Structure formats: structure tokens, C-alpha cells
Amino acid sequence: MDVLSDTMAALRTGRPYSALAERQGQWRTDIAPFAGAGFHIVLRGTCRLIPSPGGGEPVVLTAGDAVFLPHGTAHALTDDCGAPAVLLCGAYRLEKARAHPLLGDFPEVILLPARPGRHAALTSVITLLGDELGTHGRPGTDATLPALLELLIVHLLRAWYEERTAGRAGAAVTGWCAALADPAVGAALRALHHDPAKPWTVAGLATLAGLSRATFARRFAGLVGRPPLAYLTWWRLTLAARLLRESDAPLAAVAQRIGYTSQFAFAHAFKREYGLSAGRYRRERRDDHEHMNDPGWEIPGRPDPAQWHAVGRERT
């Protein structure tokens, strides 16, 4: 996978949530902060998103607009006009304890307004999700929804990345956007993500990037925030944590898959990074992961469809 997709796949935990919310009359709902990323997409009508105090000005959303909250910050949705509205709402659980530095580039609220001819793939995924959620009991929905939600988060982030690198998001290209856009550093990051188990060296990465060793190391650390091999170690252990949560692979196999020739060296590195052994991490996080995949598990702060309808009726 590319760096952006790879990063989100490694940090997501549990099952994502999504639902259609239909509203009428005057309504408002407050959504508490949660350990993940949320989204709202207006399929019909309008509403306003009110960020948490200090999070910026209210955002008016109209049909076709998408808003992404990558840090799971508290916010409210409201409408005083009384016109019917339909929203597609949802959330992803993220491993915030080891958040990828890429997430640090994201503002509290990312608005992707509807624009004719832009982000056609995102529009297509939204349409498919709306169709699936609007038809209850349809054969194959349980398999289709998770796949569509996987696509949605990638296309939301891709759309933001394209807006940012094209200079349309109102800010200079900095941080990880600059790292991915930089020909040399971007090439090195793609290589590390493509084959993290390879015995990389700074000199080898510099050659791949077409720079001298010193120039490459300096540019990589300046844009990524840590030296090349320090980032590689961090990424390998992040991948290991995902394998421990989601697979039954023996510790020796996990170590080999991420580039450690010695299980002992892997165990030492993992405990130093996470503060507990790989085996204990697997036992504790496996329970959490399975619990989060239970369809009855409630994501903290997630919008409750019953609440949406109740609020609308009360204030009509």
C-alpha cells in the first residue's frame, strides 16, 4: 500500500461505525470526544457543525459536503431552519497511544465542500454507502459496508491531501504533506513502507533518493521529524502491534515479518517502545479488539440514530 493507506490501516482498530441520520424540524445534538476519527456527509438538506470551544468557527454544510474530524474532538450538529435533512455519519476507532505523526498535520475539522468534477471517487463511495445504509436487510451488506468504510477514510484523506498539496486548503504545504510531496523523502518513505523488513541503511535510502547521505538524512529528519532509521524502527513496531492485535502469528513470525532476525531483539525493542511484553500486549489488546468488533459495542460519542429522530421530534 502507499504511505497514506498503510498508515491508516495500521492505526485503525475495531469495527467502524456508520448510519444514516434523518432529521426534521429544529434540532441539535452534541457529540462528545472519542478515541478515533469521525465524519459527517450531508446527502440532503443543510446543517451547521459547531466545533468545540477554540476549535474554530461554525461550518455550514450543504448537500454533497463532507466534514472529517480526524482527532475525534467534541462538536455539535444543529439546524434551525426546519427543512428535512439526511446525513451519513460514522466513526473510526484509532490507536491514539501511538498516533502516526501524519495525524499531527490534520486540523480539528477538515471540510471537503462539494465541487463539480472534483474528488469523483469520494463522491462514488459516498453514493454507494448511502445506498447500502438506506436498504436494510440487503444480501451482502455485512460484507459490503466494512469495505466501503475502508475506502471512505482513504478517499477522505486523499481528497484533503490533494487539496493541501494543490494549495487550495489555505495553507502552505508543510509537515508530512511536504514529506510525501518531496521527491527524495517521498521515495524513501514509499520504499520503507513497501518493504519494512528489508535491512535498510541510510546510505541505501540516500542512493534511492538520489542524494548524498548527509543531505538525505538532514532532509528526511527535517520533514518527517525523526531520522530515517529511527522512523523505520518506529514503523516496524507499529506494524508488529497490529499483527499482535489481529493475528495468531507466533512472535518469531511477527519478528521476521517486520525485519528482526532475532526474536529476542524484537522482544526487547517492543518492550522498550510499548512498556510491556509483546505477549502481554497481544492478550490485552486482543480482548479490546474483539470487543470493539462486537456489533453491539458503543463508540463513545458516536451519533445515535434514535437520538437524532428524538431531538428532531422534540423541537419540531
How would you describe this protein?
- The protein folds into two domains: 3-172, Regulatory protein AraC (Jelly Rolls); 182-290, Homeodomain-like (Arc Repressor Mutant, subunit A, Orthogonal Bundle).
- 48% of the residues lie in helices and 21% in strands.
- The chain contains twelve helices and seven strands.
- The protein has helices spanning 3-11, 120-134, 141-165, 175-181, 183-194, 202-209, 213-224, 228-246, 251-257, 263-274, 278-292, 305-315, and strands spanning 12-31, 36-44, 46-51, 59-62, 66-69, 75-94, 110-112.
- Strands 1, 2, 3, 4, 5, 6 and 7 form a seven-stranded antiparallel β-sheet that branches.
- Helix 5 packs across helix 6 and helix 6 (202-209) packs across helix 7.
- The chain-level mean pLDDT equals 81
Instruction: Output the structural class.
Output: alpha+beta
Oligomer: single chain
Give me the strand/helix succession.
Answer: HEEEEEEEHHHHHHHHHHH
Total of DSSP H or I helical runs spanning 4+ residues: 12
Main beta-sheet strand count, sense and barrel state: 7 strands, antiparallel
CATH architecture of the largest domain: Sandwich
In percent, how helical is the residue content? Answer: 40-55%
Distance between the termini: 48 Å
- CATH homologous superfamily grouping of the largest domain: Regulatory protein AraC
Low-pLDDT stretches: 289-316
- Beta-strand percentage? 15-25%
Rg over C-alpha atoms, rounded to the nearest angstrom: 21 Å
